[in-house]
Design goal:
325 residues, mainly alpha, hpI Integrase, Chain A, 2 domains, 15 helices, 3 strands, globular
Length: 325
């Protein structure tokens, strides 16, 4: 018989609480996974109930994450540590509010300092075109893949947002796509270029009728079985095209999101409009592209630095004005 106060009972209860509050299914899946990993770590040490967890135990869990929980002893990144600790705080906050534990061991836990890392890779416009030239548009799946990559690059939408696009979400007359219940369960619209719309029309006319099977799902982009694409399927074939392009860069769907935002900022796009397009709640999430966008800084460096070019000579100083220490 399952202990009603065990992790095995309390975690599903907490997830059900989130479901009632209308949290996204992907968010609940991630929280379940991370909380179960913590529960497994606790049970390996003889701790089976949340009420048995103390502040020192959570601190030990934090240290184990820092030094590595896996068999290879590879430490988790600071962002992963922060996500797991944040979810523990939410879990124990729920327990204390429902009088299921006497004290909150995660109440004052400090989050690890976050590193402000740049995207690992950004495609240049020429590299994007090289990837786009690879799908075999004579075949239904090649035509679908071309339309998908064009959409990713033109709109900078997330992988899950593209998977959930319905046929009626593309408004050809207005030149926009409607993203319904994107990250944070917020609807938004994103502009889409004429070229991407052209390839979507080609896909709808020449490829999708061959892929669709009853019952009709209404999804815009379909898998080999005629249903919605999975995240792994989408990431897999996009990654393979990038590898086939032999650019010396790796990535998948998010690589086109980064590239779109960077290219727009390089060409003078206001960071606040890019924020709206990406669907970022906070401007700080978008400001990373001001650090990635290097073209303007390079131009200023070229125009002002004395040693920026081989033929530039440093200005001759006036010996009378030199001061010696």
């Amino acid at each position: 018989m399952t202990d009603p106060q065990s992790f095995e009972t309390r975690i599903p209860q907490f997830i059900d609480y989130l479901r009632v509050r209308n949290f996204a299914e992907s968010s609940m899946h991630t929280r379940t996974w991370n909380l179960k990993k913590f529960a497994e770590w606790c049970m390996e040490r003889g701790i089976t109930r949340p009420s048995e967890v103390t502040r020192p135990i959570i601190e030990r869990y934090r240290r184990d994450m820092f030094y590595g929980l896996t068999g290879s002893r590879k430490p988790y990144q600071a962002t992963t540590q922060a996500h797991r600790l944040q979810e523990l705080r939410g879990f124990f906050r729920w327990l204390i509010r429902n009088n299921l534990i006497l004290s909150n061991p995660a109440a004052d836990i400090e989050m690890p300092r976050q590193e402000e890392r740049l995207p690992r890779a950004i495609l240049t416009p020429a590299e994007v075109e090289k990837v786009l030239s690879l799908p075999d548009i004579r075949k239904p799946f090649g035509l679908r893949d071309r339309a998908i990559i064009e959409t990713l690059y033109s709109t900078a939408i997330r992988r899950s947002e593209l998977i959930n696009l319905m046929l009626y979400d593309v408004e050809f007359d207005r030149g926009v796509v409607v993203i319904r219940l994107g990250k944070g369960r917020r609807d938004r619209m994103a502009p889409i270029g004429e070229r991407a719309l052209f390839w979507i029309r080609q896909y709808l006319a020449r490829a999708r009728p061959h892929l669709a099977v009853p019952p009709e799902t209404g999804r815009l982009f379909l898998s080999q079985r005629g249903g919605p694409l999975s995240r792994n399927q989408l990431s897999g074939f996009v990654r393979r095209y990038i590898l086939r392009a032999k650019l010396g860069k790796v990535g998948s769907c998010h690589l086109f999101r980064h590239s779109c935002a960077t290219h727009m900022h390089n060409n003078g796009g206001d960071i606040r409009f890019i924020q709206m397009m990406l669907g970022h709640k906070d401007l700080t999430s978008t400001e990373i592209y001001t650090r990635v966008s290097i073209q303007k800084l390079k131009q200023i460096h070229h125009n002002t630095h004395p040693a920026a070019t081989l033929d530039r000579r440093p200005a001759q100083s006036n010996p009378e004005e030199e001061t010696y220490l």
